[in-house]
What does this fold into?
Amino acid sequence: MNLRPATAQDFPFIRALVQRPDMQTMVTDEDDEALARYLAGPSSRLLIWGDVDPRGFAIFCDTDEPSGTVLLLRLALVEPGQGEGAAFVQALVSYGFGDLQANRIWLDTSASNLRAQRTYERAGFVLEGRLRQHEFLPTTCQRHDVLLYGIMRTEWDALPKQG
It folds into this structure.
């Protein structure tokens, strides 16, 4: 499955995905104007995973950072927990180190999102820190810890490649 640049025609797919009840505690919903800024911004990439039938989306930020550190700001799958996470994350990291020429990719996740943590760790990401009670989720009226993960190009290069 391939990654492709998103277009404004993908906004309904992205918005419908993040507005699902099962996604509301994990992925931020942004309006079309905010999504358009990711398309237009020189330091961001909005990507769709899947050629004809979109299976997920992701947003990279800081893609023009001189240090080579790139933020994988957001990612979501249509059917989480169905075995596609590893391939999706592998495609994203390959894109980050290949197309974006990153030296380091980092992301964060809620400490309550155990499925994401396992996926990131299996992909080679290392837990680098915890921001205690950093995030308040209005949908649950609770504060959550946020975990910071990162992977260096040298670590990615040393991993056995699949496929």
Remarks:
- The chain has a mean pLDDT of 89.
